[in-house]
Amino acid sequence: MAVEHIKLSQQGKDQLIKLKRVTGIEHWNVLCRWALCVSLAENSVPPSMKIPADSNVEMSWKVFGGRYAEVYLALLKERCVRDGFGTDPETLAQQLRLHMHRGISYLAANKSLKKIDNLIALAAS
User: Fold this and answer.
1) Fewest Cβ atoms closer than 10 Å to its Cβ: which of 15, 23, 70, 78?
2) Domains of the chain by start residue, with CATH
């Protein structure tokens, strides 16, 4: 497996708490999947930065991806190739963290996101 564990930053955790409250989605992994997809849909490469793993929120890749773990991995690999990166485990883990945290930030900053229906509408656009 290319990515074994995912640990979020405290800032990411705080943003996810807000998103849980706004959307009613209870599970971290579901919100993190939405966040990953939002970031992958963005054309720009997420800025390279050191993201601390300073929260107590962590999950295995299996929990993150669920029954669609292979689909998420394929999407991440495709994006890495498109952005000119390799698909070695270290690069995949780094890009996953960057995309996931960027997506969490995008969702948390979206003022029109007031309920789960808004999240679904965002995906449909």
Assistant:
1) 70
2) 5-124 (1.10.1220.160)
